[in-house]
Amino acid sequence: MKLTHTNTLPEIGTSHNDDIKKKVFIEKGEIPQLMMFGAATFTPGQSVETHKHDTMYEVFYIQSGKAEFIVNDKKMIVVPGDCITIEQGEFHSMNNPFLENVTWVYFGIATD
Questions:
Q1: CB atoms closer than 10 angstroms to residue 75
Q2: Of 1, 7, 8, 68, which has the fewest CB atoms closer than 10 Å, so is most exposed?
């Protein structure tokens, strides 16, 4: 059993953009196949460039605000309550072109 008091975790930069802050609730290696489980906040104007993961699924659950996701050239706006799954090999990017912060919880599952 592990209890994590998430409100005491440090905020660290994401691997794609050090200015975007996240808290990692569960790290890689703690649960088989789980790559990470955490939360992130994008402030207005922040973005992550187009990339893909060949051996990982990513799932994002939007908690507040809204963001723009582009998956394989398809643009969509996600809002609170939306859950988006990015499959392995799908090119994706995300950004916040809006005037308020967007927050989500997310996790990745390894496929290898």
A1: 9
A2: 1
- Supply the DSSP symbol for 98: S
Instruction: Indicate the pTM of the whole model.
Output: 0.88
Tokens (6 digits) for 47:
């973005």
Who's near 15: CB < 8 A, 6+ residues apart?
A: none
Q: What is the pLDDT of residue 1?
A: 87
**DSSP-derived 3-state class of residue 95:** strand
User: What are the Cα distances from residue 60, in Å, to 1, 34, 57, 93?
Assistant: 25, 14, 10, 12
Q: Which two tokens stand for residue 95?
A: 């950004």
Cα 87 from Cα 97, distance rounded (Å): 24
Tell me if residue 22 falls in helix, strand or coil: strand
DSSP SS3 for 72 = coil
